[in-house]
Design a protein that fits this description.
The complex is a heterodimer. Chain A is mainly alpha-helical. Chain A has one domain: ABC transporter involved in vitamin B12 uptake, BtuC, CATH 1.10.3470. Helix content of chain A is 80%, strand content 0%. The longest helix of chain A has 26 residues. Chain A is globular, with a radius of gyration of 22 Å. By secondary structure, chain B is mainly alpha-helical. Chains A and B meet through helix 3, helix 4, helix 5, helix 8 and helix 9 of A and helix 2, helix 4, helix 5, helix 12 and helix 14 of B.
Chain lengths: 309, 324
């Protein structure tokens, strides 16, 4: 306990913890909307596509400014690539006989393959400060600096303001797209807004969790929160809380353990939260359901015994 | 066989072995299941490497492939509980398995020559390192023959069960009524996919197999609707993409799998772009008549309508857990 306390009072660790808390909360909360749209795996496509954006932004910034490693620039590139991958997948679905899952796989392949190839170009080219880029792939929470923290906070603020401004629209659209259209919110306008929100949720966590596992942050907190609540407000807040909890616990565990990458540890904590929720949530939970079935069976047996043959 | 030719041959055979089952995976809407399986086999592979030290043994590949089946069964179980929406079950299972794999990799067991970079893109050069020699003549990389065996296994399976795969893909309900063992075939096929992904690990890592499996089939699907034609086109596109990717990778000294994914993606984009341009050109003539294909309403009609009463998904449709 003392060791833990010492850890938390350490300046670097505090930065790291603050960063992963913000990331966990925002990604978890916004992931709810991807979950409700039943397209959680779009988060996977967006996070993989982000590599192309990061690599491209690094190269462009290196050529223009002379140094490529600005977190803000990299994350803006990641966000643009994420939006582009969603647009690509939607375009393919609209104009061919390929279904959404196939289009998502193609988008992932194109953008991630491109990203990996550009990363190789960066490695062999005359670029400076390229060593930190790999942190975005598997996540390295320990490498979060104050500058990163500022960028994360900025993205978080933008995402949350975005969410609050569009709350009513998002809510209506998530639950009944047809009604939402009838009331006058054009799907063509709402859809991109919602997708930008999801992209922000993914991009913000890349450095902490890594792009390969970022999908877990979109899916898991929302899946867990859904078991405990029936309202959207409750779900978003609870998902944020679960995300933040997992991020903090995971980060601490990985810092204590030493050379374990942060992303996987956080994902395992998230998985545990989901498992507990699926099992023990009141009413919906598997345990509650099992007990109820048992009681019903017993009840029906008792009543059938009471009946004349 | 020289080293470069050996690597190119390995890339080509890997791409073909992956692309063939991809046709059915795409049509069954299981494209993102491939993404999940390719991540989920990682812990199996790492444990296998810790135990045996190399991936050459067929038994090892089969055992490691079982973890890939875990994600299929796990997602189906979670979907069966009716507690989760859309493709969330898949998105919950594979990150967990992949995380276990990555944590194992990060512990750097002394006899496992594996790091995060290999997980990411594979290591074709490493796989092609040990050559098979008979009477002093090099017959190419030894791993090439493992991959060839997997390719033959895929060809054999598809040839033997062509009719069954076809009917269960296009009309699972009818197949069930006609007495085909839909679920058994589904699991056998997914296990084969998992075996293929595991075997392709050296050549493609565990992230990019989805590119090798799905993109050639998707490109072929742009061109044709007929299953037999699709298979033929898939083979051609996979071969072109693999060799072009190998060329790019060779020129840049980059990872072959990344370049193959990029080239396959570009081939898809080129075909798609060409078709779009053609369609736009044709509709320009009759624009005054009004567009027939204008979208009516949002593509996301049934978004979470059942949040309150999440329902179990039709069990006769194995392909139903893909995103629509």
């Amino acid at each position: 306990m003392d060791a833990l306390f010492g850890l938390v009072s350490d300046h670097t660790v505090r930065t790291v913890l603050l960063g992963s808390t913000i990331v966990g909360f925002v990604s978890g909360a916004l992931g709810s909307f991807a979950y409700l749209r039943r397209q959680s795996l779009m988060g996977d496509v967006v996070s993989h596509a982000a590599l192309l954006g990061i690599a491209a932004a690094f190269i462009v910034a290196s050529l223009v400014v002379g140094s490529g490693h600005h977190t803000l620039v990299l994350l803006l590139g990641a966000a643009l690539a994420g939006v582009a991958s969603i647009l690509f997948a939607n375009l393919v679905v609209r104009h061919s006989r390929i279904t959404m899952d196939g289009a998502m796989a193609v988008a992932l392949a194109l953008f991630f393959g491109g990203g990996l190839t550009l990363m190789r170009v960066i490695q062999t080219g005359p670029f400076t400060q390229r060593s930190g880029l790999n942190a975005y792939i598997f996540g390295r929470a320990a490498a979060i600096t104050r500058a990163d923290l500022l960028v994360i906070a900025l993205f978080a603020a933008v995402a949350l303001v975005f969410l609050l401004l569009n709350w009513r629209v998002f809510k209506l659209y998530s639950f009944d797209a047809v009604l939402s259209e009838l009331v006058g919110y054009r799907a063509r306008l709402v859809e991109p807004l919602l997708q930008v929100t999801i992209v922000l949720a993914v991009v913000i966590g890349l450095k902490v969790v890594g792009l390969i596992l970022m999908v877990a942050f979109v899916v898991a907190p929302a899946s867990a929160a859904r078991q405990w609540t029936r309202s959207l407000e409750g779900m978003v807040v609870l998902a944020g809380a679960f995300g933040a909890l997992a991020a903090v616990v995971g980060t601490l565990l990985s810092v204590v353990a030493g050379d374990v990458p942060t992303g996987p540890v956080i994902v395992l904590v998230l998985t545990a939260i989901v498992a507990v929720s699926l099992l023990f949530a009141p009413r919906r939970g598997l345990v509650a359901r099992g007990l109820r079935r048992r009681a019903q069976r017993r009840g029906s047996r008792a009543s059938s015994e009471g009946l004349p043959a | 066989m020289s080293f470069v030719v050996g690597v190119a041959a390995l890339a080509l055979v890997t791409a073909l072995a992956c692309a063939l089952p991809g046709v059915f995976l795409l049509l069954r809407r299981d494209a993102m299941t491939v993404e999940a399986v390719s991540h989920a086999v990682l812990p199996g592979i790492v444990v296998g490497l810790i135990v045996a030290g190399s991936l050459d043994s067929p038994i090892l590949i089969l055992a490691a492939a079982l973890t890939g089946l875990l994600v299929v069964l796990g997602a189906e179980y979670l979907q069966g509980t009716g507690l989760l929406e859309g493709d969330a079950p898949l998105g919950l299972v594979f990150p967990a398995l992949f995380s276990i794999g990555i944590i194992l990799v990060s512990q750097r067991f002394s006899n496992v020559h594996l790091d995060e970079h290999v997980v990411l893109v594979g290591d074709l050069n490493l796989a092609a390192f040990i050559h098979l020699e008979v009477a002093g003549v090099s017959l190419g990389p030894r791993y090439l023959y493992v991959m060839l065996a997997v390719l033959l296994l895929n060809v054999g399976f598809i040839a033997r069960f062509y009719k069954e795969l076809k009917i269960t893909t296009f009309d699972p309900t009818l197949a069930e009524l006609l007495g085909f063992r839909v679920r058994r075939l589904h699991y056998a096929f997914m296990f084969l996919v998992s075996v293929t992904i595991t075997a392709a690990f050296y050549a493609a890592g565990s992230i990019l197999t989805v590119a090798l499996m799905i993109v050639p089939a998707a490109t072929a699907h742009l061109v044709t609707k007929r299953l037999s034609h699709m298979l033929a086109w898939t083979v051609v596109i996979a071969a072109v993409g693999a060799l072009a990717g190998f060329g790019v990778a060779y020129a840049l000294d980059a990872a072959t799998s990344g370049a193959m994914a990029l080239m396959l993606g570009l081939v898809f984009s080129a075909v798609f772009g060409f078709q779009r341009a053609q369609a736009l050109w044709q509709t320009r003539g009759r624009r005054r008549e009004g567009r027939a294909d204008a979208p009516v309403i949002a593509p996301a009609h049934d978004v979470a309508r059942e949040v309150g009463t999440a329902n179990a998904v039709n069990a006769t449709e194995p392909a139903s857990h893909a995103a629509r």
